[in-house]
Design a protein that fits this description.
Chain lengths: 363, 131
């Protein structure tokens, strides 16, 4: 038996098919993954993401510490509740994890890291925090729900105490706030508007019930994966890992190169790679033929087997198969993918595939 | 738990077979198999006229989650494939024993190869997998 979130019984009650995910018993879907996917694109869905690891970092030098630990620069964060998406790199410039860090105040930051990488992340953070006298506390007693979709905020706002509602609805993308016992942020992993809400474990079942009663669709990890793939949001362990740099995973935009004297971990090897014109590119693929692209299938560009699909699947919004892939450097418009011995044609497209309910690529 | 149609034979790979009056055999995947796969999005069918060998690859069913091979449950020749699945693979989810059939085979000989299961035997297999 795996670990259970405070909502496990609620998932079973809602008819979830439970699967193991990084040691957690999590809902894969509640009947139809595709219907859950469409609910998020068209109205609102709720995901239990309590398995994710919340880490509070406190100390006078917390900001200074994170400016060394993370490839993006928390020095950009000035307003309380402001979020930053970043990679945490090893000395070789490989990705230990991707995470969101919130600036709460000058002596308190909150990081949300992946469940599957929890132990190594905490060990790495603690190892480096010691030099800065920063306290690292895992907040395992907190639960987290992601409410996502065009109607998500409107349907979820009654779950917040009245005095905070107007302020919560006024939050701009990638900003959060404390609202009594809750922490509400306008973030997500679906390409839709919505909130991620952190709360005490005891409050989670009540919030879940209210959301479902309001017409929010319970959604499992299956829909979460197809939604994030359409939004071209990376999945740790599939699209990047410790042997892959953020530049080769399409995450160059998250690396803060300026100021040039900020010596974050992994900077040296990453700068060397940035100056190498041959580093591998991370691209979106649209399948022109019938079939489904899957992780690890070989991509053939210019007649050479020179790439690999890192995340592939069927896009319920587009009705065709899409993928993220790492391929050789170069300007390519098309390629082929080896699907069970057959070479199928794919178009190389600019991502995201889908954002805010709309298809963003030409079909 | 779903009821298994009593007039079919089953395989350990979660396929079903129906003996038709004309001597052919219709093959599909079971309700348990479609539920495990989740929403189907694509089915790769064999060519009509193609020979199939017991245990060999015959078709591929792909769901939002994964691709899964469908194995030929007997030796024979493909006499028909369910073309409707090209546009509507979800028929396998909604009617696995009816409109969601996959292939019709002309058996090369006696289909009773000792590996096919009665509904009761297949139910016992499902119960054992759940346990």
């Amino acid at each position: 038996m795996g670990s259970k979130t405070p909502l496990f019984d609620k998932h079973v009650e809602a008819g979830a098919r439970i699967v193991d995910f990084g040691g957690w018993d999590m809902p894969l879907h509640y009947g139809s993954q595709k219907e859950e996917h469409h609910a998020v694109r068209g109205k609102a869905g709720v995901f239990d993401v309590s398995h994710m690891t919340i880490v509070d970092l406190r100390g006078d030098r917390a900001g200074e510490f994170l400016r060394q630990l993370l490839a993006n620069d928390v020095g950009k964060l000035k307003d309380s509740g402001k979020a930053l998406y970043t990679c945490m790199l090893n000395e070789q410039g490989g990705v230990i994890d991707d995470l969101i860090v919130y600036y709460m105040n000058d002596t308190w930051y909150r990081a949300i890291v992946n469940a599957a990488t929890r132990a190594k992340d905490l060990a790495w953070i603690r190892q480096h925090a010691a030099d800065y006298d920063v306290d690292v506390s895992e907040r395992a007693e907190l639960a987290m729900l992601a409410v996502q979709g065009p109607d998500a905020r409107e349907l979820a706002v009654p779950c917040i105490d009245e005095e905070w509602r107007a302020q919560a609805l006024a939050l701009k993308p990638f900003n959060g706030m404390e609202a009594g016992d809750l922490f509400v942020a306008r973030t997500g992993y679906t390409g839709e508007d919505g909130w991620e809400v952190v709360m005490p474990a005891a409050a989670a079942p009540g919030v879940w019930d209210r959301l479902l009663a309001a017409g929010v669709t319970p959604c499992g990890l299956g829909a979460r994966d197809t939604l994030r793939l359409e939004a071209a949001m990376n999945l740790y362990g599939s699209d990047m890992d410790e042997t892959i740099s953020p530049l080769e995973a399409g995450l160059g935009w998250t690396v803060a190169w300026e100021p040039a004297d900020r010596d974050f971990i992994g900077r040296g090897p990453l700068e060397a790679l940035r100056n190498d014109p041959e580093y591998r590119r991370f691209v979106g693929l649209l399948l022109e033929d019938k079939g489904v692209l899957r992780n690890h299938q070989r991509v053939v560009v210019d007649g050479k087997a020179d790439g690999e699909i890192t995340s592939g699947g069927f896009s319920p919004t587009i009705g065709r198969s899409i993928a993220l892939a790492r391929i050789a450097a170069g300007d390519y418009d098309s390629a082929q993918v080896d699907v069970r011995g057959k070479l199928l044609s794919v178009r190389i497209v600019k991502t995201p595939f889908v954002r805010n309910g709309k298809i963003r690529i030409e079909l | 738990m779903s009821d298994l149609p009593g007039d079919l034979l089953y395989t350990s790979e979660h396929e079903w077979l129906r003996r038709e009056d004309d001597g052919t055999v219709t093959v599909g995947i079971t309700d348990h198999a479609q539920a495990s796969l989740g929403d189907l999005v694509y089915v790769e069918l064999p060519e009509v006229g193609q020979d199939v060998d017991n245990g060999g690859d015959m078709a591929v069913v792909e769901s939002v989650k994964a691709a899964s091979d469908v194995y030929a449950p007997i030796d024979g020749n493909v006499v028909a494939v369910n073309e409707d699945l090209a546009d509507d693979p979800e028929k396998i989810n909604s009617e696995p024993y009816g409109e969601g059939w996959i292939v019709r085979i002309q058996p090369a000989g006696d289909i009773d190869n000792g590996e096919l299961m009665t509904p009761d035997a297949y139910q016992a297999l499902l119960d054992a997998e759940d346990g």
